[in-house]
Design goal:
single chain; alpha/beta; Rossmann fold; six-stranded mixed β-sheet; 6 helices; globular; binds adenosine-5'-triphosphate
Length: 218
């Protein structure tokens, strides 16, 4: 079988001098949709940011396509993260936030401007593309963050509670866009508290704070 798109081996993460989870080994395959669940504070955000290569684990390793991120940090470009707190540049417009990410990924300015339009429109933001982030609601900002990650066309898309701020209609729109990543051959990992979101995924990884490192799957 081919290498997983993303995996972690014996991952232990700490924050504030405290162990968040220990000895976690997971695999995420191309075309797979996985929900990460667990109570508040169980480490979902810590797991996703570590899988995205934003911080080194206390021990263990993250691999992209079977290659350790620590050996080839450029592999981070194959993994996109929708941050729980969005991580947008608030003094730029919605379209500019998407364009900046594309330019950082090596696209020219004209390409980036053109590529930003479609995902924003599909997420219901066509009329808000030229609005400053600070002028948008929380739900709209979250959809800009989703559009930015989608536009990058990553091999792996990690999304941290990407529907938390959405009403029912927009939740469906966001979910449809995210789930389509797997149809195109990407791996999708969604941290969520929402059972309905998890039910749309292929399997669930559950973080259980009481038993560090234990995971269950369905
Ligand atoms: N920078 C930090 N300093 C100290 N503790 C931290 C830090 N970041 C996270 N933690 C702690 O790590 C634990 C896991 O946090 P994390 O945000 O990963 O949980 P979560 O499962 O995503 O929670 P939620 O569902 O509320 O978003 C929490 O107990 C949190 O207080």
């Amino acid at each position: 079988m081919s290498e997983p798109a993303l995996s972690c081996q014996s991952l232990t993460c700490e924050a504030g001098g405290r162990e968040i989870f220990r000895d976690l080994s997971l695999e995420f395959r191309a075309g797979e949709r996985v929900a990460v669940m667990g109570p508040s504070g169980s480490g979902k955000t810590t797991l996703l940011t570590t899988l995205a290569g934003l911080g080194p684990p206390a021990s263990g390793q993250v691999l992209v396509g079977g290659v350790p991120l620590a050996r080839d940090p450029s592999l981070r470009s194959q993994v996109a993260l929708v941050f729980q707190s969005y991580g947008l540049l608030t003094l730029l417009t919605a379209a500019e936030n998407v364009e900046v990410a594309l330019r950082a990924a090596g696209r020219t300015g004209a390409e980036a401007m053109a590529a930003a339009v479609g995902p924003l429109a599909r997420l219901g933001l066509a009329g808000h593309a030229d609005h400053l982030i600070e002028e948008l609601s929380g739900g709209q900002q979250q959809r800009v963050a989703v559009a930015r990650a989608l536009t990058l066309g990553p091999r792996v898309l990690l999304a941290d509670e990407p529907t938390a701020e959405q009403d029912a209609g927009h939740r469906e729109i966001v979910l449809t866009e995210l789930l389509a990543v797997a149809d195109r051959g990407g791996a999708l990992v969604i941290a969520t508290h929402d059972d309905e979101v998890a039910a749309r995924c292929d399997r669930v990884v559950e973080l259980r704070p009481a038993v560090r490192g234990a995971v269950g799957a369905r």
